[in-house]
Each structure stands twice: as structure tokens, then as C-alpha cells.
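S.,

Sequence below, as promised.
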Amino acid sequence: MDIGYIIGILAVGLLAGFLSSLVGIGGGVVVVPALVLIFGITQKTAQGTTLAMLSFPVALVGAYNYYKAGAVDWKIAAMLACTFMVGGFLGSKIVVGLDMSVVKKIFAVMMLVIALKYLFFDK
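The prediction came back faster than expected:
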């Protein structure tokens, strides 16, 4: 890895961390597309790398500021964390067996659905 590549990866991480704490997005919306479109990493590797990045200690530092402000519901967070682990396991088992073009299409459709919902159907 050359220095430009490393600086680019660090900039993506900084942006994703900032946006994650600012508006609750980061891994799927910032890091995955950046790794694929800017750094030429495969979709599956970008998704796996992002999941590895989102390990517990990383998310904890952002959540701590929300907790201090009284903006964390620990019961909901615990329920989501448990089911997120199960869903993450099942989703990864499925995606590693799919063709890369299918994975990219699923990812793109999910981003479009979310964007359309926020643009036109949010209260």
C-alpha cells in the first residue's frame, strides 16, 4: 500500500465515523461504496471489511456521546444487537455464495429504497 492509498482509507474512515455519529450512517452507505468505487475492492470484500470495522469497541465510542446526552435506549440496543448478530451471520452465509453482480444489485436496490423513502415518504 502506498501512502496515498493509506491516506485515502483513513479519510474514508474519518468521514464514515463522523457521518455515523452525525446522522447514523457510515458502514453501508459510506465505506462500502468508497471501497468498491474508489479503491477497487470487490463488493463482498468491502462488505466483510466494513463488518469487521464496525466491531463493538468502534461503535461504542460514538454511542457513548449519545448515552451522555440521554439518547440511548439500552433495552432496544440490546435486542437489536442480539438479532443483528444472528442476521449478520445468516446474511454473510448467503452472500458469500452469490455471484458478485447479484450482491451489487441487492446493495444498490437497498440504497435506492432507503433514499426514496427518505426523500418522498418520510413524515
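The mean pLDDT is 89.

Coffee later?
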